[in-house]
Amino acid sequence: MTATTRRLALTPILGVTLLLACGPEPSPAPGEPAPKPAAAPPIHGAAKISRLTRPPTLHGHRVATTPGRDWQLEGDESLVVVDGASGRVVAFGPRRDDGAIDNALVDLEASVFFGFDAAPHAPPIIEAEDGALHLTFRILTAPLLHHLWLALDGKVLTLASRVDDAGDDRVLGLSLGERPAFSNTPTWLEGHGELLEGGSRGGAFVGRDGPGVGYAMCNHDGRMNVKITTPSAPGFHRTGSAFRDRIGLAPGESSPLRRVALAHGTSLGDALLALPCAFEHDVVDVPGSMRDDVEVFHCESAEAHAARLLRDEVDAEEGEAKVAAAAPYARFLRASRIALPQPCARARLARFGHAPGTFFDPRRDDEAGWGHPEIAPKAGRLAWRIREGDAVVPAKLVVRGRGETKAPDWGEDPVRGAAKSFVYTTGDGEIPIPPGRYTVSAFRGLEYGRVERDLEIRAGEATSFDAKLVREVDTAGWLSADLHVHAMPSWDAPASLEDRVRSLAAVGVEVAVATDHNAVTDYGPAIRRLGLDAHLASVVGDEVTTEHPDLGHFNVFPLVPPSPLPHAEMDPHELFAAARRRSPNGVLQVNHPRMGSIGYFELLHLDRGAPRPWSLRSPFTEVGFDAIEVFNGDHFDHIGEVEWVLEDWFALMDAGMRYTATGNSDSHKVSYQDAGMPRNWVAVEDDDPRTFDEERFIAAIRAGKVVVSSGPFLTLTANGAGIGETVVLHGEATVEVMVRVDAPGWIDVDTVELLRRGHVVKRWKVPAGKRHPRLEAALQLPVGPGDWLVAIARGDGRLPNLYRSQGRPFAFTNPIHLR
Fold first, then answer.
1. How remote is the C-alpha of 157 from its chain's centroid?
2. Concatenated DSSP letters of 141-161
3. Is 612 helix (H, G, I), strand (E, B) or coil?
4. pTM tops 0.85, yes or no
5. 549-563 pLDDT, tens digit each
């Protein structure tokens, strides 16, 4: 084993949402300051710099590029694409053998900051200089010019930035910084590991250690503080920013130059080894017999460890001779070389589905180091066979630890259908799992019972879990559908199409609408590759994610690939008209309408007390949509948020404005946001996915023949008319209403309510312990023309099939109208 010392000093920088604009390169307006001429760029690279002439072939996270407007830095090993309208780096990754580029960088923005906010700027002036691309931004809120140089050399992209005071007054309290987005994966910060919570922290480097390409980023001037935005929900890894020290500028003065470097690699650790910054660490060779992943930690001295034990009221003598692993440093995936922080490091070997090995000293090759007898990770195997009758069926396995055994963690991003403590299976299989005692449950959506067993896993042995799932709820004539789902084409959804399809089929979704952000995605090829045609059909769609101005998000389906709908610099009338041209008889759905800055109703200030005047008084408002996503998957554990949007929907119906209410998972991550929760049951004549009729399915949604649920299957009739239909009154003062609710035994249902014009007119308590159906009730109800009827079912018990176990069962029907 050999060891070499390198100097490497690093700085953390974090993500930003993709922002694209259009327009030619601007020139300074009359009276505005011109950029200071630069005798030579402060950094130089070895790449060819040119305008982008055709879109590059990109694998991994999608990025929109515009030939003729955007720029590229093209090297032998890497490619960089810079958006010509915003100046952001929108792609960076290694070349593949076929010439395509692997890309997992969503966005990288270098900015001038006041406080935590990036200062707005005009579109950049862009020039190719000697070995660098030079961008000049005019800051709109202060008399400042921001210069940015980009240079590519091998696997390393270097950014140098400077700000000039171009006015007559001094400018105080600004800083330079960067905000890279590494997709919806946790950002790794040296000394802290994966950042799953918001706050400010310091570290030497940041990076991405998710599926696909790994990245590491450093600052040539040393450590900096990182501000991480608090995540809005589990699995959504929000943006943050890294700043240099606050500075002030006198008139005509320039700031010191800031230089950062971003490298790519097969993993975070591999990218770290390519960084050129100044910071001491040792690079050591991994013995050829060791090809597991290596997790490297800083370690604390015996004195520090003893002090910590005293602080925890533990006998200090136990820690006097120990050196404990402390802060995470980096992860190296099956690497031949690793970096070790000085002066002391500890490491352990890791392998998918295994308990990590014992900590050891990676600078030694005896029994204290690589020769440690307990160094190898340990695992048994969980093998399964899931059947419905004699047929193999997709299913979701939920594995929870018992006693002192923790739940397994197969990683945040799916591998072979496994993520966190779940396995999405489409056939017989097995998976490594740490030794211990577990409870394993098999689920197949909301229509089937569950099978649950306690198992003990022993190292080196396979333990079988066989289950026969039984359909307990009859949903003949209804297709189970999720109309809002994301995968890899969305920049914030790092799941392959195959893993997304597995996650849908395993939970009993029969129709999935692919709705990636400003991308048209087709699940059909992935369904066929996995042989899931008998279980899952798909519809091609697009989640139109607006900007300039922000109007919210809208699903449009069905569509013909490949081109997405326009999404920027449009008013709602133009947006909806474009959707109707592309999908004349399709569905235009308002997604999560009250979700703050991405909710249409919130952004356009819907007044539910007077919805008709609201829709008329503003020439900007457009109400020609078909459906409202009343129940979004982010809210299944906050039903009050769902009922808030229900009130909007009720108010619109009372004003005579008919829209179909839907409920969808909006799942971005296989591991956190469960596909098909909630879901829609759509009434169709043929409910077999193998003979799926897209035209009739779309017509049923438009007609409102939909039940929304995160658990119970709820149906409603009035004088024989079903959900989405209209009862014509011929002098009758009453109608006969029938309400029926059912659910498998593991789903709790407590109450069912019947509402007329949004007001509860009857409430039933569901008998405890009753089998199928859980409730079937009838009543004669006085009604009048213009009334509409809706039913709601609720449960108090938690849903054991979900990552977020605080979710509660909730379902509602679309209305039956009376005239």
1. 26
2. SSSEEEEEEEEEETTEEEEEE
3. helix
4. yes
5. 999 999 999 999 999
